[in-house]
Amino acid sequence: MIKRLHLAKPRGFCAGVVMAIQAVEEAAEEMKAERSGELTVFHAIVHNDTVVERLEEDHGVHFVEDLGELKRIETSAAARGSRLSDTVVFSAHGVSPTVRHEANRLGLHTLDATCPLVTKVHSEAKKYAARGYHILLIGDSTTHQEVVGTRGEAPDRTTVVSVVGNRKHDPELADADTVTVPDPSKVVVLTQTTLSVDDTARTIEILRRRFPDLVLPSRDDLCYATKNRQDAVRNIAGAVGLFLVVTSDYSSNGMRLLELADSLMGNARRIEGVDDIEAAWLEGVESIGVTSAASTPDDLVQDIVTFFRAANPALDVIEEGEWEDITFRQPKRVAPSNS
Q1: What is the model's pTM?
Q2: Counting beta carbons within 10 angstroms of the beta carbon of residue 207, is it exposed (0 to 12), middle (13 to 18) or buried (19 or more)?
Q3: Closest CA to 100 of 108, 72, 65
């Protein structure tokens, strides 16, 4: 019987995710009220299946990976007696200048829900590229939307380097031990914001040994929420016999939590929600740790608490740590330019 449930704190939605989801919900409902059409989002607004499904079902939002899909969606909407709005939302992960230019070419209004911490990395990429530096962008995949967007700011001056410990084995990723640059005296390192803190530090150390003149931005690129959630896992891993990480498998920060928990205590499982829990996992276990990705709704975690309380009304639920109190300003809708 499970006697103790340790809830990692913080867990779940970070400020960037809250901002992005609210931006989509409010824009979709505003357009519905004004009868101005159905809203489109470029890429999953955040990397969580439940969030995406709720926005589709409850708010009629469409998600696309290419703005070329809009014509097909418009046709489908027309067949239902509706239409597509003239607005597209950019996801929390950011987009490349190519996507922005295409949206403008199509005459679309834009609502930029990019996390401000990702925007900071984009700004650094543009700044250092303009100064003639080559950018080593540490990431876990060349296809992750955040990496695609950042690399797109200076594609000819950016090489994506695999983070140490990466399990994806993307053949397009360069290796920190062998990557080359045009001029070793003008090279800067940037990072995807959702990586393992420890693995990123090890990767940067390799690059610093190989490139003594390597420039690091004045502020760390790794997201505060990524660090805080990894620290929370570290704080409780030693006290539990099973760690449940509530995350979709394409959430970078969620999968890093899973890997960290498993490396610390050897028995971590990924679940999308309570229905994924297997009875065999619970055999001989008295204490469980639970955390969730920065894009996971907390009601999914509360369902897990309810599940274990139903089996043991005397369950000891332990929450340690502190919640974050950071908020980000909601983005404004921007009209296409004439340029």
Answers
A1: 0.96
A2: buried
A3: 108
The CB density around residue 125, as the number of other CB atoms within 10 Å, is: 25
Distance, CA of 159 to CA of 172 (rounded, Å) = 9
Sign of CA dihedral 8, 13, 16, 18: negative
Per-residue pLDDT band at 339 (split at 50, 70, 90): low
User: Measuring CA to CA, how many Å separate 76 from each of 71, 83, 204, 223?
Assistant: 9, 8, 48, 39
Which residue bears the tokens 């939002």? 61
Determine whether 146 is an active site residue.
Answer: yes
In the three-class reduction of DSSP (H, G, I as helix; E, B as strand; rest coil), residue 189 is classed as strand
Question: Mean pLDDT score of the chain, rounded to an integer?
Answer: 96
Task: Report the alpha-carbon distance of residue 108 to residue 87 in Å, rounded.
Answer: 5
User: DSSP characters for 40-101?
Assistant: EEES-SSS-HHHHHHHHHHH--EEESSGGGHHHHHHHHHHTT--EEEEEEEPTT---HHHHH
Instruction: Report how far residue 176's alpha carbon sits from residue 201's, in angstroms, rounded to the nearest whole number.
Output: 12
Place of tokens 């995350």: 247
Q: Strands 109-112 and 333-334, how do they pair?
A: antiparallel
Query: Which residues have CB under 8 Å from 307's CB, separation 6+?
Result: 274, 277
Tens digits of residue pLDDT in 251-270: 999 999 999 999 999 999 99
With the CA atoms of 265, 271, 277 and 283 taken in that order, what torsion angle do they form, in degrees rounded to the nearest 10?
Answer: -10
Count other C-beta atoms under 10 Å from residue 94's C-beta: 26
Structure tokens that stand for 188 in this block: 């800067």
User: Phi/psi at 173 (nearest 5 deg)?
Assistant: -80, 135
Check 53, 57, 124, 146 and give the catalytic one: 146
- Alpha-carbon gap, residue 163 to 138, rounded angstroms: 6
